[in-house]
Protein 1
Amino acid sequence: MEELFLSRNFKVPNAHTLRVYEANGGYQAMKKAFKMDGSAIIDEVKKSNLRGRGGAGFPTGVKWGFMPKDSDVPMYLTVNADEGEPGTFKDRYCMELDPHRLIEGCIITAWALGIRYGYIYVRGELQNAIRTLQRAINECYEKGYLGENILGTGLDFDLYVHSSAGAYICGEETGMIEGLEGKPGQPRLKPPFPAIVGVFGAPTLVNNVESISSIPFIIERGGEWFASMGVEKNGGPKLYGLSGHINKPGVYEAPSGITVRELLEEYGGGMREGSELKAFIPGGSSCAVLTPDALDAPMSFEGMREYGSTMGTGCITFMDQNTCMVRIAQRLAHFYHHESCGQCTPCREGSGWASKVLDAIEAGRGRKEDLELLLDMVDNVQGNTICALGDALAIPVRSYLQVFPEEFEAHIEKGCCPYPKWGKGKGKGKKVA
């Protein structure tokens, strides 16, 4: 992209300070929004085709429309910054390098919807992000951008940083709400949805960091402009995290709808020398794995669905020919089993069984009937749990079994893993060319 938006301040020295942020045009969108009616702001967000950047992809403007116009109790904004999906790391950059853009987006959102209190719920391990956000919030209180009667507009809005327990499930929106209330981060049954019964029983808007950080640009240039930076139903510039066996891993900004091939070759610098692309995960570890014949898949929710996966967070992990797909499935099953909150039997027990079976296959102790057993287990997990964590286990494990069945069979037939052990350079098996 010739002009950067979401990442324009990432390389600007001291852009995390109010002084530098304002010197680069910061908080002008907020002042423009204060001259607009709340419904006009919501209309611009709807026109923008901004989809939730946390992975679910729900239209942000539509979600805003669910909030009550008149509420007898104070309403809340919660920014979901519990970025815990393996392979996903873009929101961290927004918080550490450009925190005022997120805060400006929060203030505009509060003005548009009449919200009184806001929480930025940050993953507990991200201590630098927590400290940076808190310093930025303190600056805003001193400048009068937060607190009572902001800039004489009559808007009262207080914003807090809340450190999470560092559990994956705390990133699920109702698990996050439970955590904010001081309870264990266990998801709630829906309905009621947070827009009706959220934090402390009050109407609550839940949005992702990148989503809220996009709001100042939508107000600054208009919803139609933002929509033009993408494809149908998927508007705006987007942050993509690229990782794995590529030359230039990192966070990049590009339009929505860009293809995976373009991201890999033009932004990620292609595969590393000696590496050949074997597979990629398009949007975080909970997505179905894809192979090189899907490189021309567009990074949009509808486009990626046509290729049998999901866009998720837009953070792609590329894997080369030496990657053992059984081991990837095994690691993911371990992760989701460890992070299960334990409320639902299919998730709690199913993830544990999947881990044990995959352990056995990877170690060369698997049986042919284990493959059918695994598929049966994930069928019983998916769609049968309170939240989407069960699906986050079932979808990728099924995809590895279906896309790379020969690798699972090879482990069973040979009685060992045919790939080298990562990080040790040696293994029981032989390296695949």
Protein 2
Amino acid sequence: MGQTIAEQILAAHAGRDVVRPGEFVTVRVDLVMTNDLMGPPVFAQLRRLGVSRVFDPARVAVVPDHVVPARDLAAAALMQEVRRFVREQGIPHFWEVGETGIEHTLLPEQGLVAPGDLIVGSDSHTCTYGAFSAYGYGLGATDVAAVLATGETWVRVPETIRVVLRGPTAPCVTGKDVILEVIRRLGVAGGTLKCLEFAGDVGALNVDERMAVANMAVEAGAECGLFPTDEILMAWLAPRLARPYRPMRSDPDAEVEREETLDLAALEPLVAAPFSPGNVHPVSALARRGIRVDQVYLGNCANGTLTDLRQAAAVLRGRRVARGVRMIVVPATPTIQRQAVREGLVETFLAAGAVVATPTCGACAGLHLGVLGEGEVCVSTTNRNFRGRMGHRTAEVYLANAYVAAASAVAGGLADPRAVGVGVAG
């Protein structure tokens, strides 16, 4: 019997020919990632373990992205500790302000993620690397410290839920809507301890959109969300990845626990209403309720890509953000930001009355550069809308794709982008 992508990757990293769902195996990791927020607790655990050196500095990445540039004295102290650790350990994969970006977008861009890799990180959205056929998942500080010490960890081989895409996508439907539909069907716990594997017409989604899908696999409780390696992904990797890799695809006779089929042409833009990513509704239904908006946020490790910026700009071009609404645009990395400048996207945002901020996870995590006040309402391209996630406990966050976010900024309330007449950006 064949193996799924997840089983193939775990078997290879466990030194086995075959693994099966439910088994617990010890695996070596290709890369360990931490950031400015979770790094210091990880370093403290490492000291408690009595470990003075990480297992391999070249296989460690430290990404300052949550509270940089430092928002206050406490954040400045965190960064001092991070820089000291990086310097003492000789870790080469570290980026200062001006170079750094949101971790899950930055690492693939830097050529540090390849098909078949096994990556762990101190962030739950490490599953984003599934867009690159890599098995990524998040761990707590103690577990990450143990991996930094040994280069190994243990994992339970997950059952796989296969999601078969049937394309092409309808207008203004993106990868964000694909994963929201998956979460709507499975529920926020329906994929717990499992792997989501996407198959079928995956070519309907570009690599940026696949990142949005894989990123939110964890919002269905899944450990990872894996895409196969196809020509679109290989073309994306070619200028960025300098090492050889094995294209990943499930064996034809691999067994999965369950299969779901999504008709992309029948899908419409979706919105996750407060206070759960699983509270999913068609935007057309919610738009009729007249939901006012105080803030629109375009960014995050799920949707701060060039594709998202292009989609939002397609809506905003020649239009203005409604009076009384503030729109914050956060490109995920400096490379994306520079390309957005070259393409005139930043000029479009500024002309529309939006503000363009430095790459950061800040507002998404309720830390800085866009925290919501009491009773405020936000349409956001981020991945979580838990109570208090982006600021005050009474603030409400509606999760949506970039088209919906931009249309809502223009309308001053939650809006269907098809109602304002926009095309589909590449």
